[in-house]
Design goal:
Elements (H helix, E strand, L loop, with lengths): L8 E6 L5 H7 L5 H7 L1 E5 L11 E7 L5 H12 L1 E7 L1 H5 L11 H9 L23 E3 L6 H12 L11 H7 L24 H4 L16 H10 L4 H9 L9 H7 L1
Parallel strand pairs: 1-2, 1-3, 3-4, 4-5
Bound molecules: iron/sulfur cluster (SF4) (2 copies).
The site of one iron/sulfur cluster (SF4) has 14 residues, from helix 1 and helix 4.
Length: 259
């Protein structure tokens, strides 16, 4: 009888974030049996008492890199993993924790901890995982989309590259035949945001807040003009542009528009 193929060894890791993406994995009731049949989760501190030190076939990484100790840790995980996937916008873009990049970290540390802050392992800038190590694929979203996660893990388990959309949320909105919220005068970020959530918010009457980060070949200028014409102030537009990706503000056009 042919020997059964070994399941890929998977490690799930949390860095700086709210742990909502890991909770989303724990909440995969409908899919959990399928996934357990396909992969062997050897490391997951949030869910297991005994954890392997590696190596792993696939590392799934949640959270941004905010501490010096996290740089060493992510490099070790990378060295010991064949494939590394970021899950959620913190890991992919810096996400909500990186909003701190827009403030004076030293002043904030002093306010919270007083004058003695040297012992704190807190870096001035919070960065996405890709700033420090190579990332093979990214599943953005705050939290990451459960269905997209399941599709990606199933693809990875059979040695395929996950298919991540490279078009905007607007495209999914049109497929769902939603009325356009920009046309209703609402400040929607759909035109500049990467699809993959099936236009979740506009389909439920709420604007896209841009939680999946910028779409490829994003046109910030066109979105800026639309929001301006709808009456948004430069401060409001800046807040929307920077909400989920304040550490990816190295895009020239983006910088010129919002600073
Ligand atoms: S992406 Fe959102 S849900 Fe996931 S860890 Fe970051 S803040 Fe939490
Ligand atoms: S519609 Fe926008 S804010 Fe809502 S889940 Fe999708 S990307 Fe995130």
């Amino acid at each position: 009888m042919a020997k059964a193929k070994a399941k890929p060894k998977v490690g799930i890791f949390g860095f700086t974030g709210c742990a909502g993406c890991q909770l989303n994995i724990l909440n995969l009731e409908d899919h959990i049996v399928d996934l357990i049949g396909l992969i062997d989760i050897t490391t997951w501190v949030m869910a297991k008492a005994e954890n392997s030190p590696g190596p792993w076939d696939i590392a799934l990484v949640e959270g941004s890199i905010a501490k010096k100790s996290e740089i060493e840790r992510i490099k070790k995980i990378r060295e010991n993993s064949k494939i590394l996937i970021t899950i959620g916008s913190c890991a992919t873009h810096g996400g909500l924790p990186a909003m701190r990049n827009l403030r004076d970290t030293s002043a904030m540390k002093k306010t919270v901890y007083g004058d003695t802050t040297d012992h704190l392992d807190i870096m001035d800038k919070i960065m996405p995982v890709s700033h420090y190590v190579q990332v093979d694929a990214a599943l953005p979203g705050c939290p990451m989309d459960k269905n997209e996660f399941v599709r990606a893990v199933k693809a990875l388990a059979v040695g395929k590259t996950p298919q991540i959309p490279n078009f905007a949320v607007c495209y999914e909105c049109r497929i769902r035949e939603n009325a356009c919220l920009l046309k209703e005068g609402k400040f929607c970020m759909g035109p500049v945001t990467q699809a993959g959530c099936d236009a979740l918010c506009p389909s439920n009457g709420a604007v896209c807040e841009g939680c999946r980060g910028p779409v490829a070949q994003v046109n910030w200028g066109a979105e800026y003009k639309i929001l301006q014409e709808l009456g948004a102030t430069p401060e409001e537009i800046k807040r929307r542009f920077l909400k989920y990706c304040p550490s990816t503000a190295d895009m020239e056009e983006f910088q010129e528009l919002v600073f």
